[in-house]
């Protein structure tokens, strides 16, 4: 387990600069922001803002920018020191955003118990090991009425899984240690971890490839990215239930069982 985490940390230390470009260039940043906003939309319907956010596996801290104005305080945690350096530079004008370079399993004093209103895991869970230990730590961090929101790739679409396999073979920046979850596996994981009120939504039918791969020229692919975002908004509302597993991503929200 420690060896896998070490490989992932070294990988993201190596690719932090190219990874950061995804949240700068319009062709990728537009769909990335749209997917995140679609994931948090149900939470915002229940509260005025997201309160105190802790994001685990924050990368370059793009969520702090994409959600700006929707939270009172944001803390990003990532085990890649290079990613955290980039996150601080990326958010240097945001005094509500703070960053910690640590593995979530080693975080103690930085995030007090019962202090987070929302814990965000945006594309992070499938990189982690010893998930039962991770979820115990996250549960302690949440306030009594807090939520976990996990936005994950899902493996219910075999065509998309084949695309991911091929990318793992040809793209050196793509971690082959990733484990993708089905809806049932995610539900079972969080249920065993002591969470309740588990709700799942399938998100991202057309836009995720634009969110993950930088395509040029931007003058062509930025408008195409915007188009896929607009089409996804319609599909999220109108896609028949039987076809929702064709999505790239799955968003799961839940709260502590003892709240």
Architecture (CATH level 2) name: 3-Layer(aba) Sandwich
Q: What is the element string, with H for helices and E for strands? A: HHEHEHEEHEHHEHHE
**What's the domain count?**
1
Describe the main β-sheet briefly. Answer: 7 strands, mixed
Class inferred from helices and paired strands: alpha/beta
Total helix count?
Answer: 9
What would you call the quaternary organization? single chain
Percent of residues in helical segments?
40-55%
CATH-level-4 superfamily name: Vaccinia Virus protein VP39
Sheet-strand content, in percent, reads 15-25%
General form: globular
Mean pLDDT: 90
- Write down the CATH topology: Rossmann fold
Poorly predicted regions are none
Level-1 CATH class name: Alpha Beta
Rg: 17 Å
Q: Write out the strand line-up for the largest beta sheet, numbering strands in chain order.
A: 3-2-1-4-5-7-6
End-to-end separation in angstroms reads 32 Å
Q: What's the total count of β strands?
A: 7
Kindly describe this structure.
The chain has 259 residues and is of the alpha/beta class. Helices cover 45% and strands 20% of the residues. The protein has a seven-stranded mixed sheet with strand order 3-2-1-4-5-7-6, sandwiched between helices. Helix 1 (2-21) packs parallel to helix 4 and helix 2 (26-46) packs parallel to helix 9. It is globular and about 45 Å long.
């Amino acid at each position: 387990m420690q060896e896998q985490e070490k490989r992932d940390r070294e990988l993201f230390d190596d690719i932090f600069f190219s990874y950061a470009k995804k949240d700068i260039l319009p062709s990728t940043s537009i769909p990335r922001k749209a997917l995140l906003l679609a994931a948090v939309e149900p939470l915002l319907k229940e509260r005025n803002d997201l309160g105190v956010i802790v994001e685990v596996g924050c990368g370059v801290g793009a969520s702090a920018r994409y959600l700006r104005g929707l939270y009172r305080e944001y803390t990003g945690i990532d085990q890649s020191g290079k990613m955290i350096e980039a996150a601080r530079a990326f958010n240097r004008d945001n005094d509500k955003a703070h960053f910690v370079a640590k593995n979530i399993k080693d975080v103690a004093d930085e995030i007090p118990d019962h202090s987070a209103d929302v814990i965000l895991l945006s594309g992070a869970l499938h990189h982690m090991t010893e998930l039962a230990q991770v979820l115990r730590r996250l549960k302690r961090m949440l306030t009594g009425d807090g939520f976990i929101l996990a936005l994950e790739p899902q493996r219910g679409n075999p065509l998309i899984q084949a695309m991911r396999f091929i990318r793992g073979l040809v793209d050196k920046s793509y971690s082959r240690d990733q484990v993708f979850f089905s809806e049932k596996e995610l539900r079972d994981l969080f249920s065993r971890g002591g969470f309740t009120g588990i709700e799942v939504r399938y998100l991202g039918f057309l836009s995720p490839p634009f969110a993950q791969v930088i395509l040029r020229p931007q003058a062509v692919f930025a408008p195409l990215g915007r188009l896929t975002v607009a089409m996804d908004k319609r599909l999220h509302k109108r896609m028949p239930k039987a076809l929702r597993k064709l999505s790239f991503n799955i968003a799961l929200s839940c709260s502590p069982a003892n709240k």
